Amino acid sequence: MQKRQYVALSASGVYLILCIASFVFHWSRMAYDKFSAMFVGILTMPWSLGFALFKDIILAGLFQYEIGTFGKNIMLIVFALLNTGLIYFLIARTKR
Description:
Strand content: under 5%
Radius of gyration: 16 Å
Number of strands: 0
Structural class: mainly alpha
Number of domains: 1
Largest sheet: none
Order of helices and strands: HHHH
C-alpha cells in the first residue's frame, strides 16, 4: 500500500471511532436528553442538515408525517458511512 492509502485509512478510521462514540453517547441518553444527537449531527454534516430540512419542511409540513427515532438513527448511520467513504476516497485520490 502507498502512504496515501494509509493516511486515508487512518483518517476514515478516526472518523468512524468518533461516530461510534457519538452514537453510543446518543443511544445511552436518548430517552431523557433531546440534545444527545447533536454530536452525531455535527459529524454527519452536510447530509444531516439537508435531511433535517427535508424532514421538517417537506415531510412534516406538507404530508403531516413524522419519521420516528429508529428511522432518524438509520439515516444518520447511512450519512456517517457516506462521509467515511468520501473521506477515504478524497484522501486516497489526491495527488501530492
